[in-house]
Amino acid sequence: MSTSSSTSEFSTSLSISNQFEDLMRVSVWLEHMAQRYQLAEPTVFKLDLVLNEALPNIISYAFDDDLRHDIVIKLEDHSDQVFLEIIDDGLPFDPFNPAPLPPGLHSLESASINGRGIHLITSYTDAQEYQYVNNLNIMRVAIDKASVLNKRSAENIS
Amino acid sequence: MEITHETLENGIFRVYLSGRMDVLGAQAIDLKFTALTATKKAFILVDMSDVSFLASLGMRTLIFSAKALASRGGSMVLFNPQANVLDVLETSGVSSLIQIHHDLDLAIDALIKQQEE
Fold first, then answer.
1. For the purposes of burial, counting CB atoms within 10 Å of the CB of A36, is it exposed (0-12), middle (13-18) or buried (19 or more)?
2. pLDDT tops 80 at residue A82
3. Would the N or C end of chain B have less CB density within 10 A of its end CB?
């Protein structure tokens, strides 16, 4: 996922703790950033969705102790794309390998209640990358500003 | 997130949801929604008109109750989700598990048919 060809319009970050209560701060922060940098509504919706899928998973499963951990969220706006990065010092976990499959959809009775989050992240972003560096999980996604809803919708339209 | 409900003339139970159905929103309504929708045989119209955001933990709440209803011989339909919310329901496949209607009469008709089966 290269960012070298475009200049960053802005870069901003937020640090939260591994507590569900802190998710409210994320919503307020995203709303504030969207207004300040005039991000388009579809882009904001996708960022909102990615944050709401990734952060609860990190808070719930990344840490095997009861200590306070910081989770850092970085947002970069480039000319054609917005980049979102989520960094935590939890257990190593690559959400994109193996690639998430759509949840089983054969019937309501047999449908899984869980497992939709990572599929949604890949569906609503245009590139995904994971690295484990210096004991940190770094998940980075890109959202094309020109895209509308999700890739499946775009495929249906075209 | 807020939840209210009413019983329609035909015995169908209409549950109104409003707000963001994210982690905190789902937590806020989960117990009441489950108590209203998943504890007995019922035919339930979930009015999504005022739900502005839906994440997978919110879908978990919907699917859990829809499964419980189905096991008791009842049924659930979702009514009038906003465009972004509908897109998430379709992308995640929930729309193939729970009927979605944008016309209130059609939504009620679908539940009445299931009552009669």
1. exposed
2. yes
3. C
Domains of chain B by start residue, with CATH:
2-116 (3.30.750.24)
- CA dihedral (A122, A126, A130, A131) in degrees, to 10, reads -170
- If one compares A146 and B12, the residue with the highest pLDDT of the two is B12
Bridge partners (DSSP) listed for residue B15: B5, B46
Q: Above pLDDT 90, what percent of chain B? A: 86
Structure tokens at A147: 């895209």
Instruction: Pull the structure tokens for residue B92.
Output: 């995640």
Instruction: Tokens 């299931």: give the residue.
Output: B114
- Mean pLDDT, range A2-24, rounded to an integer: 81
Give the chain A residue whose CA is nearest to the CA of B85: A45
Domains of chain A: 10-153 (3.30.565.10)
Complex confidence, ipTM: 0.89
The arithmetic mean of pLDDT across residues A8-29, rounded, is 92
Rounded to the nearest 10 degrees, what angle do helices B56-71 and A41-61 cross at? 70
Interface residues on A facing B, Cβ-Cβ cutoff 8 A: 20, 23-24, 27, 45, 48-49, 52-53, 56, 102-103, 105, 107-109, 111, 113-114, 116-117, 119-120, 123-124, 149-150, 152-153
